[in-house]
Design goal:
Elements (H helix, E strand, L loop, with lengths): L66 H74 L9
Keywords: Mitochondrion, Ribonucleoprotein, Ribosomal protein, Transit peptide
Subcellular location: Mitochondrion
Protein name: Small ribosomal subunit protein mS26
Length: 149
């Protein structure tokens, strides 16, 4: 029995089918659930289903191959693979180069950030020293304009 018809075996009624009164169906092996709503799934056969009677004696023969055409096609395919391989290698090299540049930029930016922080700290120290030097005469009461404060 086809796999799609298993659910419709005798005695496995899921719901009453519209139509004549429930009971054994006229065909052998089909239960009362066979109706217009429950049509078996259509599509390809499974690999275990036997071939149709008309196809049982059919021998599967591959199509004939022209040797000259095979040589031409083989050569073209080889060239195609060479071109694609070269393109892939070029793109791969480009991606690796971008990765390397990004890594170098990241390392370079970390180094530049450290350098910037060091220079900013030195600048703060220098500003503090200059402020202290400028405020020293005021603390002593000396006016740069020539008079006392």
């Amino acid at each position: 029995m086809l796999r799609a018809l298993w659910r419709c075996r005798r005695g496995l009624a899921l719901s009453p089918a519209p139509g004549p009164a429930p009971g054994p169906a006229p065909g052998p092996g089909l239960g009362p659930c066979w109706g217009p709503r429950l049509v078996p799934a259509r599509g390809r056969k499974t690999r275990y289903d036997p071939p149709a009677k008309s196809k049982a004696s059919r021998l599967k023969v591959p199509p004939p191959v022209d040797p000259e055409e095979l040589v031409v096609i083989t050569e073209r395919y080889r060239q195609h693979r060479l071109v694609l391989g070269a393109l892939r290698a070029e793109f791969r090299a480009e991606v690796l180069q971008k990765k390397r540049e990004a890594l170098l930029t990241q390392e370079d930016s970390a180094r530049l950030l450290q350098e910037h922080q060091r220079l900013m700290a030195w600048n703060e120290e220098e500003n503090a020293r200059q402020r202290a030097r400028r405020s020293a005469p005021r603390r002593q009461g000396i006016n740069w304009a020539g008079g006392d404060l």
